Amino acid sequence: MSGASGRGRTDDGVEMAIWLVEGVRPYGGRPVDLLLRDGVVAEVGRGLSAPSGAHRLDAGGLVALPGLVDLHTHLREPGREDAETVETGSRAAALGGYTAVHAMANTEPVADTAGVVEQVWRLGREAGLVDVRPVGAVTVGLAGVRLAELGAMADSAARVRVFSDDGHCVSDPALMRRALEYVKAFDGVVAQHAEEPRLTERAQMNEGVIAARLGLTGWPAAAEEAVIARDVLLAGHVGSRLHVCHVSTAGSVEILRWAKAKGFRVTAEVTPHHLLLTDELAATYDPVYKVNPPLRTAEDVAALRAGLADGTIDAIATDHAPHALEDKQSEWAAARPGMLGLETALSVAVRAMVETGLLDWRGLAERMAAAPARIGGLAGHGRAVAEGEPASLVLLDPDARWSVDPAASASRSRNTPYAGRELPARVVATFLAGEPTGE
Ligand code: DOR
Ligand code: ZN
Questions:
Q1: Does the beta carbon of 321 lie inside 6 Å of ligand 1?
Q2: Helix, strand, coil % (nearest 5) of the chain?
Q3: Ligand 1 closest atom vs CA 167
Q4: pLDDT per position as a tens digit, 393-410
Q5: Which of 223, 293, 376, 425 could form a disulfide with 196 if both were Cys (CB 3.0 to 4.6 A apart)?
Q6: Sign of the CA dihedral with 146 first, then 151, 154, and 156 last
Q7: b/e per residue, 271-304, with b = 16+ CB within 10 A?
Q8: What is the pTM (predicted TM-score) of this model?
Q9: How confident is the model at residue 169 (pLDDT cuts 50, 70, 90)?
Q10: Which listed residue (286, 319, 327, 397) is catalytic?
Q11: Quick check: is 319 catalytic?
Q12: Which tens digits make up the pLDDT trace of 337-370?
């Protein structure tokens, strides 16, 4: 339906620009031109001619990947708009190369009803920068006592498929079992924040030699591993989909490897920070390094990288957790856990996985776009960079080096653990269904 005017038209008649992206390398392969029209990659070839009026983007030297998909984003709206809003978080996501994010349910009020998830979904549509997919709470108020209205959230306009009490563990095994059974009806997934609460009371950081030296109460690996072991058995027993949030220990990787070998329907994610940073940073007492689950040891980092490389861990998810200054700039024990992630995830993943030779660009695209889109049930995302596929893409400069400046972040918050660090690879442009968003 595009004419010589250089405009296209969507199904509902909205005019869209046409883009000719010249000389880009899909997955780091040989350079081609991509013609983006009507929300799809209409043509792929060398020396394509631009329709008159089309925008041209000289993408020589840039790598094209499918737009990234985040399974784990805290957008804080409703309730903590001083820390982040759907709009500011969406902008940070687009700048980071994302075209879809799953907005976690621990808002105020909690996203445990059709009304709240529809509100978040609508705010995402209004911002129009990424596909915002609300996550529904598993239990009312994240209290771990009664199941939330999972079916009503699934049937709502937000079409929720991922349910999580993230920030809290669904620690009651009978309730967890019922949630797993319930979501099966609409091919939903329960995303568990695996933390046995009785084992982490007053915990401040990873339990180990550093915690002993600093005199901080430890968060033992077993508190995560015990819940994952229990939940993979439950998922296997009822035949439902379990997703494990922010896996952080070597033991968790082993349990997941076993569960997958058994054929259980289990997926898992790891955060960029758990792939790069270790618990030694707690020795600075800078609360920017306080996060839940906590930063672990170098051995854990190595096991997480290996597990992500061999497919035991399916996806990288940011756990982007913006916090207002007063909640973060205090003494260690009083500070909230959590770190920004959306704008640095791709660069940190390149440092941990690509520069180390553990993943190539295709492997990275699988773990940051295709796998999370499958897990979240997003048909229009994480698709191949190929003719006829949605024009939701990220273009990045693999040779760029940049220094992280918290003040330059699109997020409302400033709690990045990478301030002043030089990171590799930079997002140059993001397209959501053919429209540029990353600026
Ligand atoms: O560090 C974290 N921050 N971990 C969580 O599970 C929740 C999150 C938050 O909401 O700030
Ligand atoms: Zn969590």
A1: yes
A2: 35, 25, 45
A3: 6
A4: 999 999 999 999 999 999
A5: 223
A6: negative
A7: bbbbbbbbbebbeeeebbbbbbbbbbbeebbebb
A8: 0.97
A9: very high
A10: 319
A11: yes
A12: 999 999 999 999 999 999 999 999 999 999 999 9
